[in-house]
Design goal:
two-stranded antiparallel sheet, alpha/beta, 12% strand, binds magnesium ion, 4-stranded parallel beta sheet, binds thiamine diphosphate
Length: 242
C-alpha cells in the first residue's frame, strides 16, 4: 500500500517511480498490468493477457475492471467478441455506478443491463449487487472457475455507486442528493462485518482491531508517500515507452 500511495502522490518511491500516477499505476510482479487513462484501455490488454495465458497453458485468468462508460467504447465490444470466439480465460467486471463522469447512463445507453450485451458475443452475462460482498465473491468465483476450466470468458455487471464525484474537485451538481444518500445507506462493509460476526468468523472486538489495523496501514502509507521525494528532474525521460 505504501508504494501504491507513493505512486498516487507522484513520488520516486512509488511502484512506477511516480511516473504512472493514478492513471497508469502498474506492477507486473503482482500481475497488475496497469490502470489506464484511456477509458476501456485495460479491456483489450486483459484480453491479450488471457490469450497469452491460454497459449502458455499457464492456468492464469485475466480480470479487467472498468466502468459503465467504458462499456460503450468500441474496445469493449471488440474484446468481448474475440475473447468469446477464442474461448479466452478472462473475466470482465463492469462497475456500473450509473454515471460516466457526470453523464447519467440512461442518456447514453438504451438497455438497462450492460450484462445483456454478453449474449451478443456468446458468453454469460451476470448482473450482481455490487454492494454485496458475498454476491460479488460468488459471481467472481464462478467466472474464474469457468475461465480456468477452459469454458471461456464471463461478463459480470456489478450494480453500484460512487459516493464522491468522478474526480476530486468536480462539483457534485449532477446527482440528486436523495440518490447519493440512498446509496450511502447501502454501503457494503457494515453488513458484511455484521454477517461475519453472526457467523462466528469474527468477534466484534476482532472486527474492531482489524479496522484499526487497516486505518493504521493507510495512515502509514500516506505518511510514507508525503515524506518521499519527487523523481529527480534529470530522470524525466527514464523508464518511459511510447
Ligand atoms: C477513450 C477516452 N474517451 C474519453 C475519456 C474522458 N473520460 C474520462 S473518464 C470518462 C467516463 C468514464 O465513465 P465510467 O467508465 O462510467 O467511469 P466513472 O465516471 O464511473 O468513474 C471519460 C469520458 C477518456 N479518458 N478516454
Ligand atoms: Mg461509471
Amino acid at each position: 500500500m505504501k508504494y501504491m500511495m507513493a505512486e498516487l502522490y507522484g513520488k520516486a518511491t512509488g511502484y512506477n517511480k511516480g511516473k504512472g500516477g493514478s492513471q497508469h499505476i502498474a506492477w507486473p510482479g503482482l500481475g497488475i498490468l496497469g490502470a489506464n487513462g484511456i477509458v476501456s484501455g485495460g479491456i483489450p490488454i486483459a484480453t491479450g493477457a488471457a490469450m497469452s495465458a491460454k497459449l502458455r497453458k499457464s492456468g492464469q485468468v485475466a480480470v479487467a475492471f472498468f466502468g459503465d462508460g467504458a462499456s460503450n467504447e468500441g474496445a469493449f465490444h471488440e474484446s468481448l467478441n474475440i475473447a468469446a470466439t477464442f474461448c479466452l480465460p478472462v473475466v470482465y467486471v463492469c462497475e456500473n455506478n450509473l454515471y460516466g463522469v457526470g453523464t447519467r447512463q440512461t442518456c447514453v445507453r438504451k438497455i438497462a443491463d450492460i450484462a445483456d450485451r454478453a449474449s451478443g458475443y456468446g458468453m454469460p452475462g451476470v448482473v450482481v449487487d455490487g454492494n454485496n460482498v458475498l454476491a460479488v465473491y460468488k459471481a467472481a468465483y464462478e467466472a474464474v472457475q469457468r475461465a480456468r476450466s477452459g469454458e471461456g470468458p464471463t461478463l459480470i455487471e456489478c450494480k453500484t455507486y460512487r459516493w464522491r464525484t468522478h474526480f476530486e474537485g468536480e462539483p457534485d451538481t449532477y446527482r440528486p442528493r436523495e440518490e447519493v444518500e440512498a446509496w450511502m445507506r447501502r454501503e457494503p462493509i457494515a453488513p458484511y462485518r455484521q454477517y461475519l460476526i453472526e457467523q462466528g468468523v469474527l468477534s466484534a472486538s476482532e472486527a474492531e482491531a482489524l479496522e484499526q489495523r487497516v486505518v493504521a496501514q493507510v495512515d502509514e502509507a500516506v505518511a510514507f508517500a508525503r515524506s518521499s521525494p519527487f523523481p529527480a528532474p534529470e530522470s524525466a525521460l527514464e523508464d518511459l515507452w511510447a
